[in-house]
Automatic annotation (TrEMBL):
It comes from the Bacteria. Keywords: Membrane, Transmembrane, Transmembrane helix. This is Uncharacterized protein. The chain crosses the membrane at residues 6-24, 45-78, 98-122, 143-165, 171-189. The keyword Transmembrane applies.
Length: 205
């Protein structure tokens, strides 16, 4: 495994896809995050959100196209879960877009690949909602409020165990990537928010 590049390509493909999913999620939640004053990557990326996301996703597809696209499909379908009865720009309802995306994934990538991605993304979404329970008290899309906080955590663990059963390397890589991405973004915002030393003397010092 040390000398075989394939596992590394899978891991970094998952990591880069995770960044894209995070950017997409932040873009969709930018108005709500602005309302509660929560860090959002679109604050920094601005109009560069789309080109950066496409560039990073292109790299992920070069490394491992099947894993990258199946995770993105799963993320897209899961994102529709909060808008099941809403009419989308395509003219379809949220549940219709989610169903079509899942079916496409099953046809293109197979049952194991698509369901392992879907279970992993759902687990991460549930854990994220559990962590954001206090800050998302005004959100109607947080599953910790819909299901209950403890139930949300437990269900997330169950989905993760199922994803490990289907594809342990993808599941572990996905969780590890999630921690790295969250930590990097936290450091990024700490650096941005840190007062810059201009070298000017402050009166009274």
């Amino acid at each position: 495994m040390i000398f075989n590049p394939f596992p590394y390509k899978i891991f970094f493909g998952i990591f880069l896809t995770g960044i894209v999913i995070k950017i997409m999620d932040d873009y969709m939640d930018r108005e709500f995050d602005k309302l509660i004053n929560r860090d959002n990557t679109t604050k920094i990326l601005g109009s560069g959100v789309l080109p950066y996301a496409l560039f990073i996703f292109s790299l992920a597809c070069i490394l491992n196209p099947v894993t990258a696209v199946s995770l993105f499909f799963a993320s897209f379908a899961t994102g529709m879960a909060g808008n099941l009865n809403a009419k989308m720009p395509s003219g379809l309802y949220g549940y219709q877009e989610a169903l079509i995306t899942i079916v496409m994934g099953l046809v293109l990538f197979g049952v194991m690949e698509m369901f392992s991605s879907l279970l992993l993304i759902i687990a991460i979404q549930l854990w994220d909602d559990y962590v954001d329970y206090n800050s998302d008290r005004y959100s109607i899309k947080n599953w910790a409020f819909i299901l209950g906080k403890n139930e949300c955590l437990l269900l997330g663990i169950i989905f993760f165990i199922l994803s490990v059963y289907l594809d342990y390397f993808k599941a572990l890589s996905g969780i590890f990537s999630m921690w790295i991405i969250v930590y990097i973004i936290k450091l990024w915002f700490n650096y941005i928010d840190k007062p810059q030393n201009s070298g000017e003397e402050v009166p009274g010092e």
